[in-house]
Records
---
Amino acid sequence: MVQRRLPRPSELAPLLRPAPFVRDATVRRLSKAASIADLRAIARRRTPRAVFDYTDGAADGELSLRRARDAFARVEFTPSVLRDVSHVDTSREILGRRSALPFAFGPTGFTRMMNHEGERAVASVAQEVGIPYALSTMGTTSIEDVAAAAPGARRWFQLYLWRDRAPAKDLVQRAADSGYDTLMLTVDTPVGGARLRDVRNGLTIPPALSLRTFLDGAMHPNWWANLLTTDPLTFASLESTDGTVADLINRVFDPALTIADVEWLRDTWPGKLVIKGIQSVDDARRVVDAGADAVLLSNHGGRQLDRAPVPLELVPPVVDAVGERAEVWVDTGITHGADIVAAIAFGAQTTLIGRAYLYGLMAGGQRGVAKAVEILAGEITRTLQLIGVNSVDELRPSHVRLRPNG
């Protein structure tokens, strides 16, 4: 028989300690986030639907994005136990310089639409934690203003080539003058992808205050207040911004981009050159032959060609083909630190994240971006320890494999 009794007040006291009230609403929100998925859920509540979908969505049926994430879900690690993992080094050399973590902030367009702090906030976090940040041609803060906001950050500039080469040359020169050490040419955007969520939401640039967006805005007054009381939301490097994103891409970007343009940039740009949007072994060879220092295996986060190759699955064959002459990077579908560990174990030199930090930005501005980094860094460290390695540089293909589908 179980003997029951009434608890003494002294026994209840330790159990009845309410958590102290935190006045800062942003701190309260972010303290509840234990994963990138949690940040995504907060972001979804805090931003208008069209804004969230612009970040969260992909092209057509969004198969490319789902397949990229499914590939990471099929990763299986092969841990080694009975090893001293009390100290772990998460740093990684990227194009000749050490990064505190094995990932960089990838380029994202229209970043101040997610949160009014925009690119300045992202670059400031990159500076604080010691990782690179890539500013997009379609960014909403200028090359010079980002450099001023984070003068100590390692800054890269992502370039789209326009039909008119003169503005592109000007951007390249401005990036060099402002201390950007790496140029990243995106080559998977001859035309705009069919981003159906944006079409259905009627997303335009700048956002139009239709009846639908007005009603949605009534549920997100802080977002609208920040939009209307800060600098106008426009692309910093583009003069013509009316219409949808696809309209802009089709009107401005050059569908006649060829390998000759890569060679021209190699002759023009004094720093490191990365080609973003490589989706085959043959194309990786071609751009490395033309002088690329790194290839970024990417299907644009699933936002261009649906049913595109899965970037993670391309890592081993591309490393075999060009890994002795250039670095191989990968993005798309990365939502967990273990995804980053897996990509490097397969042979990638580094990874780029986009949506992961944008969810943080939408959830809490600069502090939300820092929270995303904190989450990923913790996951990377823990995964390395559980695998049984002391540093990112120790990762090898023997630490990982892909389980078959099904």
---
Amino acid sequence: MSDGSSAELTNTAYDILKVLGKDADFLYDTIDKYIKDAQNANRQDLIEMWQVIKKDRQKHVHMLKEALEKEIHG
């Protein structure tokens, strides 16, 4: 059994989890609706912008997941 200290959430782990949650919500709940809205409006410029943002956020989620793994496993 652990001494309990590893069960505590450090400030840095909390920060990572908070941003990871926000980015995940945006990626999985929001961005595709924005892309669809831009498609319905026949706005190729906005479609491309949202797709770039989606790709960037996916990169951020990957970075955050790696940071969280380091935070948890040392």
---
Amino acid sequence: MAASGPRLVVDGMNVIGSRPDGWWRDRDAAVRRLFAGLAALAAERGAGITLVLDGRPIEALGEGRHQGVVVCYAGRAGRDAADDRIVGLVGADDAPASLVVVTADRELRERVEALGASTSGPRELLRRLDRLGER
């Protein structure tokens, strides 16, 4: 299946944190839930999804391609580490105008839009993932 629509770059912890569902009690489980939804979306769309996460890699979800989703981790600890990784990915992309960065972070939005990418908030993505999960 050919990729349908723009390529997504997902600010993972920002998307997870946008829904107060108790994710903080088990961060790894929250990451796995988001990843599972994105993998289902990648299968539907024909891939084109990158998930960028803060913190240490979680077991069985190291950096690299998994089920059609490219998983990346911030290259360092500290404030804006994942944001800097996302900006680096967008800046290095041959076609940044084909990217949509999913985040609610206003400063990150400004940084990637200056590089030519579009942005979208987490709400639309989460609704789509919820619909996929209902199937």
